[in-house]
Structure formats: structure tokens, C-alpha cells
Amino acid sequence: MNLTILGCYAATPRTFTNPTSQVLEIKNRLFLIDCGEGTQVQLRKNKVKFSKINHIFISHLHGDHFFGLVGLVSTFTLLNRTADLHIYGPKGIKEIITLQLKLSNSWTGYNLYFHELTSTESEIIFEDEKVIVKTIPLKHRVYTNGFLFQEKTGDRKLDMNAVLNYNIETCYYQKIKNGNDIEMQDGSIIPNEKLTLDPLPPKSYAFCSDTIYDESILPIIENADILYHESTFLETEAHLSEKTMHTTAKQAATIALKANVKQLIMGHYSTRYASIELFKQEAETIFPNVLLSDDGKTFEF
Amino acid sequence: MNLTILGCYAATPRTFTNPTSQVLEIKNRLFLIDCGEGTQVQLRKNKVKFSKINHIFISHLHGDHFFGLVGLVSTFTLLNRTADLHIYGPKGIKEIITLQLKLSNSWTGYNLYFHELTSTESEIIFEDEKVIVKTIPLKHRVYTNGFLFQEKTGDRKLDMNAVLNYNIETCYYQKIKNGNDIEMQDGSIIPNEKLTLDPLPPKSYAFCSDTIYDESILPIIENADILYHESTFLETEAHLSEKTMHTTAKQAATIALKANVKQLIMGHYSTRYASIELFKQEAETIFPNVLLSDDGKTFEF
């Protein structure tokens, strides 16, 4: 699993900072999360393979989280994309994109599916054999969801020492990996757990931006391996944070602590501060494992 | 009069090239022409004073000419703009922008006026005491206009040698500048043309992108000082140019020649070519005064 930050600054694109967008690679799937203006250029700069993105998740309809979407959708057509593209986001996103495609007389050359979200309860919005994605209802000035990406538990792994010890033929290996016990020629049964090892523990990534400090998300993100949580402000601007329905670094760290996540990544920084290190310093007074996102940074987990 | 090219490449924003947008400063007015994705960042990089832009002209509703508009409109609000903003563009542009502002619950903090264009005849769309702007109906895959920006003829200039020769008192100077003759104490009349010099000839700038080769625009742009004309392709790709309703470098130069403009600026280049110098070389076989636009370049006239 790895995460590439295309943009992690609040409000507007600037000369050296980009609005929210990130690419999560999980079990060989490439998910785009939010798509602020300039995202397609950031994808190019970070050498992300455009064509592998089949699912785009939009947290909410503030411009710094979706103004780059229509451009990306259009560029996919110019690049002769044929694969289906799925967009998950708040109700209204379909109208925004299709109106612009209609007026520019530029329908996509591929199938475009919109999955509009309206629920205020957590729900599963994507699932295949290896990954599941759930919404994390957030509280912000407009309808907003975070997203929880979870690997599913993989197959048990063959314990090569054990199968060789028992002289089991290779034609049974897949059966064992599928979880079955094995009956030997003498009629004895060797239980599956003697022939296999536990699979790697499944990983999970929770994306939470934008939101007020809200403990009601704790049961959803509990024990996540990585939590990206917005921290637009420092505590010195707590009054602005409350007014604009954002979070301070200290509050983000408190969520990380109470949710018992392994790692906190901070982002959605206001550009008013001299250094983003200040966010880390404030958060570390509450929670030890803090990483700072920055445009162009990649995290491997 | 000066022109800053924010972007002049066709189709999509790329790592090092930007879609169409330019700023024309004429008689101290700042006009933004087209607004591809990333325009607000280009405005910052080129240190253009955002707040001085009160009029935005959008040629047509292909993404590379307007996808940056909603972001700029939103950023003006974040920058606490109060001045009115006027947007001129094809019918539909109002719905595109207002739908997104509505769904993001982010109405502008300033008055936003849309002037939607539908005419296929040239019309005056802006006029004040010093500048006039007319549409140049173009032929492209969707409804498209170029724009002709013309300075108005200024006041005549006082000929200081003459007024001192005639011993005319300073209280009459404004009257003379306004074009009046002067009656002397002996009853004789000194005609205005003996006391004044011709004003500087008014300049004009014609912006034509995107369009096929179309001689019907010649009467509108005739004798313009500067013509920006798209040249998406070279003659070697004339078949693509025709198919996509664009122009080759040679065709753009032919329009410049036939319209008797003083200077041609080329742009809207396809990125398939190794060097934009090729456009200049091809155009100069037809018309001598060719300049190449490029992102970040400023022309003074």
C-alpha cells in the first residue's frame, strides 16, 4: 500500500502549493481521492499512470476538492481512454460534470459512472475481492464524507516446511491455500492450520478531510493503520477552526489517539503559517506517530 | 498596451505547458481573455494584480479555454474581492459557474455579471470612454468568438510651441484640448488644428482562437495592430487541422497578410511538435512580422 500526495493545502492553488488530491495504491488498485484544480498536472509531475485510475472519490463539493475533476475527465478522453471510470461523491457532482461535457460538446469516449452519496451513515460504496471502501460521514459546511479503504484478509499462506514434512503432493497446494484440511492415504486428517501460516494482516487507510473535531467517527476509523486527518489550523487559531468547521493539529492528534490508529498523517494546511513543522510539533504533544504530508511526497506502508 | 501570455498550448494542461489564457492591459484596463485550468496559478506566477481584473472574455466552452474560470471566481471571494466582475462568454457559462457556486454553498462576496453571447454577427460587447471591445465570430466545433480590443482615439495634444507663440493664456488650454477654436482679443479666430497635434493613433488587438481558416473575419480585424491567431498545426497536419476545425501556421499567416495587420502572434500550439519555432518558420514564408507566444511571455506595443 502506498500513498502519493498530489496536493495537501487548503483553500486555493498557489504557485508552490496544491489543493487536496492524493492517490492511494492498495492491492494494485489505484484510487484517486479528491481532485482540486491542477490535479491532472500533479498526476503528470508525479508520474502516476493515469490510465490505471478507475475510481475517484470526492469528499465534498468545495472547489479545492473537486475543481480539477472535469479537466481530468476530459483529458482521459483526449488520451483515448476506454476503461470505465467510476466517480463517488456528493449528490450534484453528476450534474456539474455532465453539464460541462454537454455544453462543450465533448462526451467521454468511455463509460462514466456516477455514484452519488447522500447518506449520513457510514456505508460500503466499493467492494471487490481484495478491497472494501466505506464512507466516513464528516461534519463540515457542506455535505462531506471521508473514506476508509480496507484490504480484505488474504488467503492463508502455504507453510512449505509443513507440506514437505507431510510429503503432500503439489496438486493439493491450492486446496490447502483455500482453507481445506487434507486427508492422507492412511485416512488420517491433517487440519489446515498445521499446513498454513496466517496471511499478512490486512491494512487500512482512513482519509478525513474536511471536518470539525468529531468523535462520532471514532468507531469507523478505530485501529486503522493510517489516518490522514485534516489540520487546517493550529490551536492559536482555534476560533477560526471552529468558525470554518475545520480541525486544529491538536484536535487531529486527539482523534488519532482515541481511535488508536498506528500512524497519523496531517494535511489540509492553511498557508498562513511559516512552516508545516508547527503542525507536527503541536500534534506530537498528544500523539507520538505523526507524519506530515506535502505535495509530491509518497508514503509506503 | 501590453499582453501577457499565461498559457498558449492546445488541449490539456501539462507539466510545462498551460492551456489558453492571456491578460491584455490596454489604457490601464486589465482584461483576462480565456481561462484554462491553472490560470489563477499562472496569474500568481506572472505577478498579475488579480484585483485589477474586472472583465473576463471567454471565447468558447472547450475545457482548455474555461475550466479555470470557476476556480478564479471562487478565489476572488477568498481574497475578499468587492469590485464587480463581468464575464463575457457563450450561452451556458452562467449555468456552469452558478451551479458550482450553488452546490459548494460558496456565493461570491462581490457582484458577478454574466454577459452571455449568442450572436453570429460581430457586436460591441464592452465600451467605455477609452476602449471598445467587439466580438469576432469564429468557426469551430462549438459556438466561438474571438475578441477585438480597440483603443478609442484620444484627445488632441496641445502644441506648446503654438500656444506660446500666440500668447494664449493657460485657462484656455483645456478648451483647446477639447477641440475648440480660440477667438483672440482682436476678434481673429485661430483654428484648433493650428494649436494642437494629432493624438497617438489608437491601437487595436485581435484575439482569434479557436477557428478554422475563415476569410469572413477579415473585414472585422482589418488593419489591426496585433493579431493573435491560433495555429494549432503545421501544414503537414493540414488534414487534422481541417478535421478538428483548427488552423495551420501558414493559414494564420495568410489571414494576417490579407487583413493587413501589422504584427501576427501565433499560439494554441499542438504539443506534438519538437519546437514552436517551426510555426514561425512556416508562417514567415507568407507574412514577415511573426512573433511566437509562449507561457509567461509579455509583449509591449
TL;DR of this structure?
2 copies of one chain form a homodimer. With 301 residues, the first copy, chain A, is of the alpha/beta class.
The CATH superfamily title of the largest domain in chain A: Ribonuclease Z/Hydroxyacylglutathione hydrolase-like
Count of separate DSSP helical elements of chain A = 10
Largest interface: A-B, 33 and 33 residues
- Overall structural domain count of chain A: 2
How are the strands of the biggest sheet of chain A laid out side by side? 6-5-4-3-2-1-18
Can you describe this structure?
2 copies of one chain form a homodimer. In chain A, helix 7 links the parallel strand 14 (204-208) and strand 15. Helix content of chain A is 24%, strand content 28%. In chain A, the strands form 4 sheets. A 7-stranded mixed beta sheet of chain A has the order 6-5-4-3-2-1-18. A 7-stranded mixed beta sheet of chain A has the order 7-8-9-14-15-16-17, covered by helices on one side. In chain A, strands 10-13 form a two-stranded antiparallel sheet. Chain A has 2 domains: 2-154 and 200-300, Metallo-beta-lactamase, Chain A, CATH 3.60.15.10; 157-197, no CATH class. The longest helix of chain A has 11 residues, at 93-103. Chain A has helices at 39-45, 63-66, 69-78, 93-103, 160-165, 173-177, 218-221, 238-244, 249-258, 277-283, and strands spanning 2-7, 21-26, 29-33, 53-57, 85-90, 112-117, 124-127, 131-138, 144-151, 157-158, 182-183, 189-190, 196-197, 204-208, 226-230, 263-267, 290-292, 298-300. Chain A is of the alpha/beta class. In chain A, helix 3 packs across helix 4 and helix 9 (249-258) packs across helix 10 (277-283). The radius of gyration of chain A is 22 Å and the shape is globular. At the A-B interface, helix 1, helix 3 and helix 4 of A face helix 1, helix 3 and helix 4 of B.
